[in-house]
TrEMBL record:
One GO MF term: NAD+ poly-ADP-ribosyltransferase activity
Species in which this protein is naturally found: Sphaeroforma arctica JP610
Designated name of the protein: PARP catalytic domain-containing protein
InterPro entries, sorted: Poly(ADP-ribose)pol_cat_dom (IPR012317)
Domain PARP catalytic: 24-165
Length: 208
């Protein structure tokens, strides 16, 4: 497959396992994600040189680099079919992230304010993987595996913050990123991390 900054490979498949998050809503598994979705293929993302340089600066200065998942919509089913082409439409998040990296501009979120949201739990990111892609009678979704320069993290257990507190004043307090930690009453079931992110892999997985 040819696409923006993508190369198909299987070398990392054994190290990447997508797991269903162990939670139910009204007795039903959210989004029908099976206990162990089948990873069909993994693409390595070749980021622009300037994006890599910026991230390496953060990596050295902040440290605490994590691997985190990010779910988003792929209108063209990027990677589902090996002979498919990237659409590069402005509204296709997957193609634009592969080509240009993440941008916060124009995106607005109510949980913790504007930012790039990632999670250590693939099932959480599956909730945001957007549209299902059908091929050969099967259903596929896709998500990114990213490198995140988290630095010093500001942890919060609330499910969201009031609008006048978004985003939290982490820079004033000396923090570099926000972590929605689990365990608070009325809070989060799964962690979320909002920070400087470099897409590393594009994962295509089968739901049925």
């Amino acid at each position: 497959m040819t696409g923006p900054g993508l190369e198909y490979g299987t070398a990392t498949e054994n190290s990447l396992q997508l797991r269903q998050r162990q939670a139910t809503v009204s007795g039903a598994v959210e989004n029908n994600m099976p206990p162990t979705p089948t990873v069909q293929r993994i693409f390595k993302i070749f980021n622009r040189a300037e994006a890599i340089e910026r991230f390496e600066v953060l990596e050295k200065s902040l440290g605490n680099v994590k691997r985190r998942f990010h779910g988003t919509k792929a209108l063209c089913g990027l990677g589902v079919l090996l002979n498919g082409a990237a659409c590069m439409r402005p509204e296709c998040n997957a193609c634009n992230i592969c080509a240009n990296g993440f941008e916060v501009r124009g995106e607005h979120y109510s949980r913790f304010g504007d930012g790039v949201y990632t999670s250590a739990t693939s099932g959480k990111s599956n909730d945001y993987a957007g549209n299902d892609n059908k091929a050969h009678g099967k259903t596929f979704r896709c998500m990114f595996l990213c490198k995140v320069a988290a630095g010093k993290t500001y942890k919060i257990q609330l499910g969201n913050l009031p609008a006048d507190q978004c985003p939290p004043p982490v820079s004033v307090a000396g923090y570099d990123s926000v972590v929605g930690d689990v365990g608070g009453v009325g809070g989060l079931n799964y962690d979320e991390l909002c920070d400087s992110v470099l897409p590393a892999y594009w994962i295509v997985y089968q739901l049925n």
